Amino acid sequence: xxxxxxxxxxxxxxxxxxxxxxxxxxxxxxxxxxxxxxxxxxxxxxxxxxxxxxxxxxxxxxxxxxxxxxxxxxxxxxxxxxxxxxxxxxxxxxxxxxxxxxxxxxxxxxxx
Length: 112
Fold this sequence. Notes:
Blueprint: H1 19-33, H2 39-55, H3 62-80, H4 85-101
């Protein structure tokens, strides 16, 4: 993705509402650059996830887009064998537990 393709924020507004939204797109871009999947695969999978969200009645909002992006990334990670469904969800649970035990304002740290 070159700079001209990046979405631009409205005057005075942050580009992403939450850090995880930027991280999802950053991880997807890193995986494309690493050759784990192509831009076309990313685009097609994201499009499919967005259509599924629309068919399920999800609102046409930024949060819906980023949830679809996360779903697309998880699907491609599984399809390419980078991680299994169980591995993804085990990591998700580890992050949730780490977040819950982290005092407010402190960085979340995963244990070994």
